[in-house]
Design brief:
heterotrimer; A alpha+beta; B alpha/beta; C alpha+beta; B: Rossmann fold; five-stranded parallel β-sheet; 5 helices; 20% strand; C: alpha+beta; 2 helices; 10 strands; globular; chemotaxis (chain A); hydrolase (chain A); CheC-like_sf (chain A)
Chain lengths: 405, 119, 173
Amino acid sequence: MNVDIQSLGTFNQLAHEGAEQATQSMGQMTGIDAVVDVTKITLLDRADVGEELAGRDFVGVQFSFDGVLEGDTVLAFDVDSAGTITEEMMPGSSDDEAMARSGIEEIGNIMMSGFIDGWADYVGATIDHSPPEYIEESGGDVLPDAPENGDHQQVFVFKSEIEWIDESVNFYIYMLPEYESLTEMMVEHVDTDGDAIPIDKLQTFNEMTTSGTQKAADNVEMMTGIPTESEVTQISFAPIEDVPKQIGTDTFVGTVVEFTGTPSGYLMVLFDEISAINVAEAMMPIEMDSDELTDQHKAAIEELGNIMTSGFVDGWANVLQTSVEHTPPRVVHDMGRAIMDPLAAQVGQHQEHAFIIDSEMQTDDIEFKAEIHALPDEKELRAALDDLDVERATETGADVEQIFK
Amino acid sequence: MPDVLIADDSEFMRNLLREILEEDHEIVGEVENGVEAVEVFKEEGPDLVMMDIVMPIRDGIEATDEIKSSNPDANVIMCTSVGQEEKMKEAVKAGADGYITKPFQKPSVMEAIEDVVPS
Amino acid sequence: MKVYDGSQTESPEQSTPERIKVGIAEYKVTTEPAVLTTSGLGSCIGIAVYDTRNTVAGLVHVMLPSAADIDGGNHAKFADTGIEALIEAMADAGASMEAMEAKIAGGSDMLDFSENGSSIGSRNAKKVRETLDEHDVPVVGEDLGGDHGRSVKLEADTGNFIVKSANTDSITL
């Protein structure tokens, strides 16, 4: 089942324009000036959808839609921003619960119609949606529950982040189409065969990456003694200019390498400053107890980044029975987006869209969180997927003993 | 007491290896790339080289190849974060005698050394 | 619903100027005393252009040197077409070509893995200078190169261009 890059781009554009249409409707109704920051398509484990919403409370509206495309969409506002929005629509209404709720339902209804209509127009068929259902939930629960026995564990999710100009409040539009109806629609809209991606193998690749992340997390645990859990692993697809936005504007410490082979590209391991200090000190034989990031910390991070990088890419090489070389790590300490920016620019010299592979790991013991982001060259990734033997997908490890007999 | 040369571009890793090894071994040198590894090997003729793979200027596999071609009796243990089967095969081809993947624990390092240079 | 009658149009507070965010491969123009901002410049360059006589100012965040090198994509992604689009939009907004000045920041060489040839950062910088020169817009301030990222703010009414790096204090061009 092949899908070309162009149609992935078109679908991303549809979601983006839908989100813009929805945002504009909201602007007309409330006078609130907002812009759609990022829209991306992400392939991830259904159970991990909405992980990034953890720890915050949301209100929103949920719809199901059917027709040529089936699934659910959700519009989720931070609790605070929902209050502001209803207040803008009908002053005084945020104190009246029923009224506030009805306001959110109505605005959601109008916004989501705008969101869905573009899709229907594109495919030249109708997509019906159900009446809005008001929801008030914490974190990822704002999204519909995963089906108990879905055929596909991994799903494509379209996610738009909308940012208010004057305030640091965001809201989100999620679209969760049924895997089958979406991929059928994608396959039908293939424009060219030249740059086709075998979409099923993308799932296998994602599974390999999940085990690579686990290996990287095990490596962290061995070097630091800190029990480390790998969290979400996902592959996203976005226009190249949206790639740096995948990382926050905060300052990060970490390593960047260029990797070559099949696939090739760039890989970064990033820690927030506190995590970097914590993890570096856990690696050091002597107590440092420093609040500042020193050169010793950076040396430890350099080696940790190196080992995590290997843990992450070795699985690809072993499954594909090839080798993936990487440069010695370069240590970075800078604003997150500025770190990603030159890498996106290098990749952007040859392609308009990019796949971004993201993983996260963390621990409950101390404040520690790490992110791994890989930015593969599109052609090489396609070649890797072509070469990928799905049967070998679990052969991510190498047997040293066997080779050094 | 066997003498050892450590080749690794990471200062952190050189320190860690030195701490593990210095009790029972004489460290004759610590270098940061493959070119220096070959040079110091020729000067010092250590019993064992602990060789990283991914290093700037010249990688550890090339350096191992040169050391082993000039002196087939040399003992080289790859000590690397790379856990790729194809790389391990390349290391074998270059003549490596052992392969330790990072992160390692002291016992596995001691065991690998014992296999290659029995005391 | 928002009621569009007189009672709703409270005058906005004058104390804080409007902030206009400019994303990667985007440009924005304002005729208000607003602050145009863009963040996370690595090898990218932020080009601020303002009219020294009237309040018309614009900021573009470009990623790559030339649109001729790659097909497709939006104009604001490239130094040559991005600057052109910005200058045109400013002229449309009432800026006079003769009164335009530019200040530029970014173009860092950080994380340049190319072993031969010049970095994207320096190629971006070269193209930005060339293009501004072609349009006779003088560069009156710059903070380019190095190996660190930057975020920038342009005050539309003063032409002050504030450059901030992760590990240093901000400078005003």
